[in-house]
Amino acid sequence: MQAKPQRVLSFFDSTCIIVGIIIGAGIYQMAPDIARGAGSWQQLIVLWIVGGLLSFCGALSYTELAAAYREHSGGDYVYLTRAYGRMAGFLFGWTQLLIVRPGDIAVMAFAFATYGRRIWDPLASHAELSQRLFAAAPVLLLTAINIVGVKQGKWTQNCLTLVKAGGLSLVILAAVVMPQKPQVAQPVEDLPWSLALIFVLFTYGGWNEMAYVAAEVKNPKKNIALAMAVGMSGVIVLYLLINGAFLHALGFEGLAASKTPASDMLALILPMSGSTLISLLVCISALGVVNGQIFTGARISYALGGDHRFFTILGRWTPRTSTPVPALAVQGLIAIGLILLFGGYIDVILYTAAAVYAFYMATSLSVIVLRHKEPQQERPYKVPGYPVTPLVFAGVCAFLIYNSIAYAMTFKRTSVVVLAAALTAGIAVYAAEKLTASRGKNLLQGQQTAGSAGC
User: Fold this and answer.
1) C-alpha closest to that of 46 among 192, 173, 193, 167
2) Least confident span in 125-134, 141-150, 342-351, 385-394
3) Where are the beta strands (DSSP E) in 346-432?
4) What are the DSSP calls for 131-181, one per residue?
5) Is 127 inside a domain boundary?
6) Which terminal residue of the chain has fewer beta carbons within 10 Å of its beta carbon, N or C?
7) Is the pLDDT of residue 276 over 60?
């Protein structure tokens, strides 16, 4: 009997996965760019609130699906296959394997490298090489930890999440007690509002991760929805508080002009050690995201391997460690490959954005499709505001797909070419697999017919 995932994740583990993946280095790394796209502090706060509510719309849709299909690992892969057919599920699994998941891991690994090198960098004279090596190291280490066992992976996630949440709280407290810095107007280059929204939604990204481990959650009828609600609410509050802290300490113009707002803020109180402390906190935050994405992402490849013969090796579950070891290893290697290829986070985001939001849109709409296609399916949780809630999120996704591609094309980013090549290759692989399966079926039928004739 083939080994399968076991229900080992508690409500606390599930919440830590959601919070730990959402709260990464993006809040520190992208806050200035988002401010530049907002134009004023009032619009900045509105942008973060709107981004949180839109993400909540997506999270509510995913929660219904995760609770309904709680016996399956793979999240979107399962929902898209059931709603639209095998090709839709395959293309999701393919893009997650080659594009989205290793790309997301690479973005946070680059954030770790950027701040980690400020603490210690023995290769400072070789900046590009140092950046790549510092980014690849945590991917290699955390992949190895998750291969060792599911307990090691989830304990690592819980510890990193608690430390980063505590660190964020201390940063907010520090901003409250420090005197306000007078605002100094500094010229900054404005960004498109739509790009700022893409960055906001990227920093909120991760709310869908619970769907990928639904088959491993204890008491899934209750804990999936509860963990999603508690995790998302907590993240929105923390993001608004940290932005309020930045604005209080640096002023809007200071935030928009800053490269490292958290470091600049703490330097006002602790000029000698503030930069080092915040760099350490960002590194821990980035590691929490990388570990969580490694943990959940391998479950998508595992589901892909279980259904498609070309990827059978990825569908092997190791009972001793209770992890999909081959999927973890392949995912880690591809992520390290992207790190070596791109060398920076903006190209990686543009590489993944269109694919991410295309499947977000398709999955949110699958809530509507599956209610009609599989009305008999038990749904312990149903999305409020149906069908408006999934339709609103789908509309936002369509808007962001257009803008991410337009922005990438305007600046002739190589990421667009790589993305198109990867998707084309995925269609070709699916066609080849289908053709091989068809020939195998015809051959088997021919053999059976010949055998019958011989009798």
Assistant:
1) 193
2) 342-351
3) none
4) HHHHHHHHHHHHHHHHHH-HHHHHHHHHHHHHHHHHHHHHHHHHHHHSPPP
5) yes
6) N
7) yes
| 18 assigned to some structural domain | yes
d(CA 451, CA 431): 30
Q: Is residue 94 part of a domain?
A: yes
Residue 164: CATH number of its domain: 1.20.1740.10
Q: Is-contact 67 225, C-beta < 8 A?
A: yes
H-helix or E-strand containing 20?
Answer: helix 11-22
The parent domain of residue 211 ranges over: 11-413
CA distance 303 to 314: 8
Instruction: Flag whether 213 is in a domain.
Output: yes
Structure tokens at 148: 């060792």
Q: What is the DSSP letter of 100?
A: I
Cis peptide before 384 (omega within 30 of 0): no
Average pLDDT for the chain: 84
Q: What does the pLDDT read at residue 187? A: 52
Burial class (CB in 10 A: 0-12, 13-18, 19+), 177: exposed
> How many CB atoms sit inside 10 A of residue 211's CB?
29
